User: What shape does this take?
Amino acid sequence: MSENKILLQEIISRIGAKLIKGDENYCITAIESSQNTSPYTILYIRDKKYLKKIDQSKSKTCLVSEDHIKFVSNFENIIVSENLSLSFALLTKILKNSVVDLPVNESYKFDNSPSIGVGSRISNNTKFGTNVRIGCNCVIEDGVSIGDNSIVEHNVVIHKDSTIGKNVFISSGVVIGSEGFGFVRGNSTWVQITHLGRVCIGNYVSIGSNSCIDRGTIEDTVISDNVIIDNSVHIAHNVFIGKRTAIAAKVGIAGSTLIGEDCQIGGMSGIFGHLKITNNVILSPKSNVYRDIKKSGRFSSIFPLIEHFNWKKISILISKLDKIRFF
Assistant: This one.
């Protein structure tokens, strides 16, 4: 994967921040929030919970609010912003890699000679395992890798740098690695956060038609081995799905949620963001999950079907429960 290189002096001028310590000619290639492999990244510290991860970082540069300056004195370069979220959103746009380069013809040369359907457009930087099949009218961007025996049906889009394991089945209409729904309010409009992470899909995964899996904001969205996903499922940025979990149709999982192994998520369920669901959890269809699930078992958050007139009476009673005293 290619990297952009940009000087700190250009960064601070474009994101509305100031460099209170360090070298404005220092070169930056990426941004991170916790995990790091390079000193040429900016560590983004948006609140106190990220301060405990400072020691894990190899970064020499940080982006913080004025409230957190005292905690980052060991960094060589310290960037401070009065509107930290907005500066972060603008920084992601600066560090986004260049536009995807797709060939304009259907003459491909790959080591393992995958089967490619009519009308598909595939970057020459794609890496294929053996016995891979690609359907018609697919788009596969730079840096994608697809493992042995995997099948991609028609009209699938796989965005830049996504990784697909072995024996993966991707049904028609799936979109992998699209931008997540992340925006920051600017002075007069919404500013989109550019998502710089990837989607990483394990082995023996099945993804149903018209499902969408967003790329991570900075770190990756991860679908582990043997996960099965039904049709029309949305998995947002930075979600982690544990091994052997099954997700039924029309489920929506909001960003940065961690779902354990061997879970079963009923159709049309909605899971709020930044939650943790432990292993071996079963959610009944149409369940709404708005807090962590810390123990295994079956959970429901819906009423059984009743006549509409009775449902209205029960709904009125529920709205008044805080005023009802039973003892």
